[in-house]
Automatic annotation (TrEMBL), chain A:
Coiled coil: none
Species in which this protein is naturally found: Nocardioides albertanoniae
Protein name: Fatty acid desaturase
GO cellular component, one term: membrane
InterPro entries noted in UniProt: FA_desaturase_dom, Fatty_acid_desaturase
PANTHER family: ACYL-COA DELTA-9-DESATURASE, DESB, FATTY ACID DESATURASE 2
MF GO annotations: oxidoreductase activity, acting on paired donors, with oxidation of a pair of donors resulting in the reduction of molecular oxygen to two molecules of water
Source domain of life: Bacteria
TrEMBL record, chain B:
Pfam families given in the database record: Fer2, NAD_binding_1
Domain (2Fe-2S ferredoxin-type) ranges: 283-364
Cofactor: FAD
Name of the protein this chain belongs to: Ferredoxin-NADP reductase
Organism of this sequence: Nocardioides albertanoniae
Sample GO molecular function, one term: 2 iron, 2 sulfur cluster binding
UniProt cross-references to PROSITE patterns, sorted A to Z: 2FE2S_FER_2, FAD_FR
InterPro entries assigned: 2Fe-2S_ferredoxin-like_sf, 2Fe-2S_ferredoxin-type, Beta-grasp_dom_sf, FAD-bd_FR_type, Flavoprot_Pyr_Nucl_cyt_Rdtase, FNR_nucleotide-bd, MRET, OxRdtase_FAD/NAD-bd
Record keywords: 2Fe-2S, FAD, Flavoprotein, Iron, Iron-sulfur, Metal-binding, Oxidoreductase
Matching SUPFAM superfamilies: 2Fe-2S ferredoxin-like, Ferredoxin reductase-like, C-terminal NADP-linked domain, Riboflavin synthase domain-like
Domain FAD-binding FR-type: 37-151
Transmembrane segments: none
Length: 374, 364
């Protein structure tokens, strides 16, 4: 009962799914057994660089005029490294095996508005467990956007491009508020009581973040305070733009599959891997680009193995690709501009009601794989 | 004075706010690992072999120069030592501080016997410290912890009992008493396998020679010395049950001492190794985060989690360092150190010293 999907993906039989899952497990076991000094040295080096960029950034504000642009650049790099290659990956438990409390998923806190504890629930648990299951994975549209045809169209979604633009600019605020599940609250499926602790954590974190970036560090530069304030604001926005774009390219470019809740009931481990693979997309680029994106440019490998150190994704990717070829499964990758264009098109297309010609698979059947209607 | 001012600035709320969310130590350590505002780190400044008898595990006294953040210790207290023993992994174990009471910033010593630790990767920390560590090696420390200490006003006559490596806290007490020029009497009973394996042999001989109110009895079991019994205690320390007593050593020694003292309040106990947890088996142990469920076999939750293939964060495995603290969502657990049970929902427990009794769910 092998059917061929329009994007070239084959639905795997139960036996094939099991074999496919077993191959993924082998990769995982091999990397886990191989973790060691090189991985530790790598992350320590990234942390060292991030701290150096931060100190450089904060210091350069004292050089009036010529210091401002390099200061903002250093601080942006520092915040991007902190959030992506360090924060996101550490909080996935990728470095827990090292036994270093500084790099432990339970203790790490990152330089962004979203408190780590809230984020780990929404991201590590909700998003990574239910990846691209429409109605369960809250990262499909983040409760704000319409990013999939299985999300029913409402006139509200006409603003899709505007919401996306605002979400991109103020991404760290969006991520922080994400955990309050405001849409669920409005719909009456969530109570204020459930949000009490989550909200208190957000308030505390927002206070800490704004105090240092918008009060203390500007004050420390005396008469240059307004420039420092503006610089810190700019660095935060630059980080927001970058992280939004990398993250949206991970799940929303053309060719990424979404899944219905029904087809993921009683899911096997093999199907879980299959869903992670088809629900994610990679971005091609150089080594520096991968580091600056926290190796989330290897989103497929990240979703298959979220708790393996991200620096291992490039070596894993070669094997995953080879396995995909053997099973006739799409391996969604492309340069940044291509993936971004796919995301942009989706944001615009789903602002409007579905066209009649849309021949999406009915819910409960095969994975509804987006047609590349270029 | 200037140093102290620097320390106060580094520990101020303003600096904490500026370094948020990482904390000032995360930046200081990048400059120099011996700079710290809150944490304690130390460099090994001396390694002195104590015992290297053929066939016996090595024992060495390691002297550590801590960062200025070290708050000092009271005789009998212990400290968590974290060290990168290879393959990028940090191992943490607890050792008693063996030198005399220290003041803030003072050097401290730990006396380490090489053990084959169960989960050592690739080296056990005690083997690393006795065989591979060199002067200059950096270690991570906790502040001194523990209630197994002498009171500030030491009674007229006290009894110290130790077995094997359990001598270290007791030795710290004895050394501190000598420095304090304690005028009273100390009866010190120690059991070791043999003379070749006796830690601090020379120093003990010196103390014996000096007299100064220290009544020293060293028993070497290989030479036919008697084990601890009420009769032996009564012979060596008449009226021992009424004397304030500190005992540290392996489980068998502790049990024999507890039986001999028969519940009197004068006995202070420190396990050299935590008691084996013979918990109550039955019911289901659920690890909620990973969705795994196993039959509760009565072992500690950490042991059961590891047996189920999980690898929870942990440190000392004896309830001291709190690295393994996890949320218990439901169920009755017993603290194997104190015997206390607790049934509160959503409670933070140390999984290395908690055994479930019946159904239990922990967020792991």
């Amino acid at each position: 009962m092998t059917t061929v999907e329009k994007t070239g993906n084959r639905r795997l039989t139960a036996e094939e799914l099991e074999a496919f899952g077993a191959e993924m497990d082998v990769i995982r076991q091999r990397i886990v057994a191989d973790l060691g000094e090189d991985d530790a040295a790598y992350i320590y080096n990234i942390v060292k660089k991030q701290r150096a960029f931060e100190i450089a950034g904060r210091s350069l504000y004292y050089l009036p005029v010529i210091g401002w642009v390099p200061a903002v650049a250093c601080l942006s790099i520092s915040k991007i490294l902190d959030n992506m290659e360090i924060g996101h990956n550490v909080m996935h438990g990728q470095y827990d095996w090292m036994g270093d409390p500084d790099l432990n998923s339970r203790m790490f806190e990152w330089d962004t508005m979203a408190p780590s504890e809230n984020w780990k629930y929404g991201h590590n648990y909700m998003h990574h467990t239910f990846t691209n299951i429409v109605g369960k994975d809250r990262d499909v549209g983040y409760g704000i956007l319409r990013m999939d045809e299985d999300q029913e169209w409402r006139p509200y979604y006409l603003g899709n491009p505007i919401y996306a633009f605002l979400l991109m600019t103020f991404f760290e605020w969006g991520v922080a508020m994400h955990d309050l599940e405001v849409d669920e609250l409005v719909a009456g499926r969530r109570t204020w009581a459930e949000n009490k602790e989550i909200g208190a954590r957000i308030l505390r974190k927002v206070k800490e973040q704004t105090l240092k970036d918008y009060v203390l560090f500007p004050l420390l530069t005396g008469p240059l305070a307004p420039l420092t304030f503006a610089g810190n604001f700019t660095a935060n926005i630059i980080r927001n733009l970058w992280t939004f774009n990398i993250i949206f390219c991970g799940h929303f470019p053309a060719g990424v599959a979404s899944f219905s809740q029904e087809e993921c009931e009683d899911e096997t481990q093999g199907h879980w891997y299959y869903r992670q693979l088809l629900g994610s997309a990679n971005i091609t680029g150089g080594r520096l680009f991968h580091i600056m994106s926290g190796n989330l440019s290897y989103q497929i490998e990240h979703h298959l193995f979220p708790d393996l150190p991200a620096r291992r994704y490039p070596e894993i990717a070669e094997e995953v690709r080879e396995i995909c070829e053997r099973y006739d499964l799409a391996y969604n990758t492309g340069p940044l501009h291509k993936q971004l264009f796919g995301v942009f098109k989706k944001i615009c297309r789903f602002a409007l009601p579905d066209r009649k010609s849309s021949d999406a698979a009915p819910a409960g059947a095969a994975p509804a794989i987006e047609e590349v209607a270029a | 004075m200037a140093l102290d001012l620097g320390g106060r600035i580094l520990r101020s709320r303003t600096v904490a706010a500026l370094a948020s969310p990482h904390g000032i130590d995360r930046y200081l350590t990048q400059i120099n690992p011996m700079l710290a505002a809150h944490e304690v780190r130390a460099r090994i400044v001396d390694i002195h072999p104590e015992v290297s008898a053929p066939g016996a595990p090595r024992v060495a006294t390691v002297t550590l120069q801590p960062t200025s953040t070290w708050r000092g210790h009271r005789a009998g207290q212990h400290v968590s030592v974290g060290i990168d023993t290879g393959e990028g992994r940090r191992t943490t174990r607890v050792f008693t501080v063996s030198n005399t009471e220290s003041k803030p910033g003072d050097p401290l010593t730990i006396t380490v016997r090489a053990h084959d630790d169960e989960d050592a990767t690739p080296y056990s920390i005690s083997k690393y410290l006795t065989e591979r560590a060199t002067v200059g090696t950096l270690v991570h420390l906790s502040q001194a912890e523990g209630d197994f200490v002498l009171p500030h006003h030491v009674p007229e006559h006290i009894v110290l009992i130790s077995g094997g490596s359990g001598i270290t806290p007791v030795m710290s007490m004895l050394r501190s008493l000598q420095r304090r020029t304690h005028r009273g009497k100390v009866t010190f009973l120690h059991w070791a396998p043999s003379a070749e394996r006796q830690i601090y042999a020379e120093e003990l001989e010196e103390i014996r020679g000096q007299g100064h109110g220290v009544d020293l009895h060293i028993m070497h079991t290989a030479d036919g010395a008697p084990y601890l019994s009420p009769a032996l205690l009564e012979k060596l320390v008449p009226g021992y049950r009424d004397l304030p007593t500190w005992v540290c050593g392996p489980e068998s020694l502790i049990e024999a001492t507890q039986a001999a003292y028969d519940g009197t309040e004068s006995l202070h106990v420190e396990y050299f190794k935590p008691p084996r947890s013979g918990g109550v088996a039955g019911g289901e142990m659920t690890f909620s985060t990973t969705g795994k469920t196993v039959a509760n076999d009565g072992a500690t939750i950490l042991d059961q989690a590891e047996a189920a293939g999980l690898s929870p964060e942990h440190g000392c495995r004896m309830g001291i360092c709190f690295s393994c603290t996890a949320n218990k969502s439901s169920g009755l657990v017993r603290n194997v150190l104190t015997g206390e049970t607790s049934e509160l929902p959503d409670e933070q427990i140390r999984i290395c010293v908690s055994t479930p009794e019946g159904d239990c769910a922990v967020d792991l």
